[in-house]
């Protein structure tokens, strides 16, 4: 599913990723396996059509155990190191089928010119602000960069529960527009962008995938926070409100005027077997697109969730038959 979203130019992942200040694409992605609790991720990679597939290979190889000479296999690779790792792993030649197709992403002249122009505007605005603040005449409205909301794009993610109740989660992102080269988002970081763990005799199962402001989600380790909170309470609607409230009031985020996060999640009752799961989506962002379906459905349910002007957050839950 995430590969399909990466291939769609509408989404900010893979093909449709935002450009950094150099006019280049740099992608982050990760996967977590709820059965093995294995994790694999990539950060700031530029030359693969489907970053999530590289993350999947890292997860697969890390689950194989120690390498020769007792070396520990990586669970995260960034930049050119990810491409070098793929080349040394002797994967099958049909890389396009596996999603490991190399696609060098050189900036077009137009894209590079736009990025440089934006960077120049941003730098100029910052200098103007600094000068006017020192003189006590700053007008923040006059120096704000205009961004068309219809052009804003966001992270993509997916969660999955199979017929035996096993769970998995993944997330993929092109990052924020005009980011500094080398910036890595929550989409690549353990405990931040996604979480998955199967139900056991002692605990329910849980899986989630997150989106929003990467630095804020990373500082609060929001995926792991979701897991710990959801598994310690029964009412997932109440828990969702609690987690969002704690996120927005976190002292770790006191320097941010606005807090942006959202997730899709599912809780699998260990005592109910694999018959059903409680699905939830929640967000503080203005909007969040959600889709879900089970084997009982003939087509997916899709929702564009929108926050009302008076609301600070949105929470929605429902039971899903597996």
From TrEMBL:
<dbReference type="InterPro" id="IPR000246">
    <property type="entry name" value="Peptidase_T2"/>
</dbReference>
<dbReference type="Pfam" id="PF01112">
    <property type="entry name" value="Asparaginase_2"/>
</dbReference>
<dbReference type="InterPro" id="IPR029055">
    <property type="entry name" value="Ntn_hydrolases_N"/>
</dbReference>
<dbReference type="InterPro" id="IPR037464">
    <property type="entry name" value="Taspase1"/>
</dbReference>
<feature type="region of interest" description="Disordered">
    <location>
        <begin position="121"/>
        <end position="140"/>
    </location>
</feature>
<protein>
    <submittedName>
        <fullName>Taspase, threonine aspartase, 1</fullName>
    </submittedName>
</protein>
<feature type="compositionally biased region" description="Basic and acidic residues">
    <location>
        <begin position="124"/>
        <end position="140"/>
    </location>
</feature>
């Amino acid at each position: 599913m995430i590969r399909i979203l990466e291939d769609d130019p509408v989404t900010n992942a893979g093909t449709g990723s935002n450009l950094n200040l150099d006019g280049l694409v740099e992608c982050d992605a990760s996967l977590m396996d709820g059965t093995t609790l294995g994790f694999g991720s990539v950060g700031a990679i530029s030359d693969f059509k489907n970053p999530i597939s590289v993350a999947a290979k890292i997860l697969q190889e890390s689950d194989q155990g120690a390498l020769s000479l007792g070396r520990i296999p990586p669970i995260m690779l960034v930049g050119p190191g990810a491409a070098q790792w793929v080349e040394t792993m002797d994967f099958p030649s049909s890389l396009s089928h596996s999603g490991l197709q190399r696609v060098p992403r050189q900036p077009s002249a137009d894209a590079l010119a736009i990025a440089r122009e934006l960077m120049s505007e941003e730098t100029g605005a910052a200098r103007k602000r600094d000068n006017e603040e020192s003189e006590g005449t700053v007008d923040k409205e006059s120096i704000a960069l205009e961004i068309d909301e219809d052009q804003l794009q966001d992270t993509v993610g997916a969660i999955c529960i199979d017929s035996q109740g096993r769970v998995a989660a993944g997330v993929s992102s092109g990052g924020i527009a005009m980011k500094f080269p080398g910036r890595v988002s929550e989409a690549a970081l353990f405990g931040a962008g996604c979480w998955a763990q199967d139900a056991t005799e002692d605990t329910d199962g849980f899986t989630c995938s997150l989106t929003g402001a990467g630095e804020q989600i990373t500082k609060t380790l929001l995926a792991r926070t979701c897991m710990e909170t959801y598994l310690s309470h029964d009412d997932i609607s109440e828990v969702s409100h609690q987690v969002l409230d704690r996120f927005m009031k976190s002292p770790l985020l006191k320097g941010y005027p606005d807090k942006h996060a959202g997730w899709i999640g599912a809780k699998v009752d260990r005592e109910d077997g694999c018959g059903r799961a409680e699905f939830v989506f929640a967000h503080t962002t203005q909007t969040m697109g959600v889709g879900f379906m089970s084997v009982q459905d003939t087509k997916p349910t899709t929702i564009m969730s929108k926050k009302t002007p008076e609301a600070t957050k949105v929470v929605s839950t429902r039971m899903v038959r597996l």
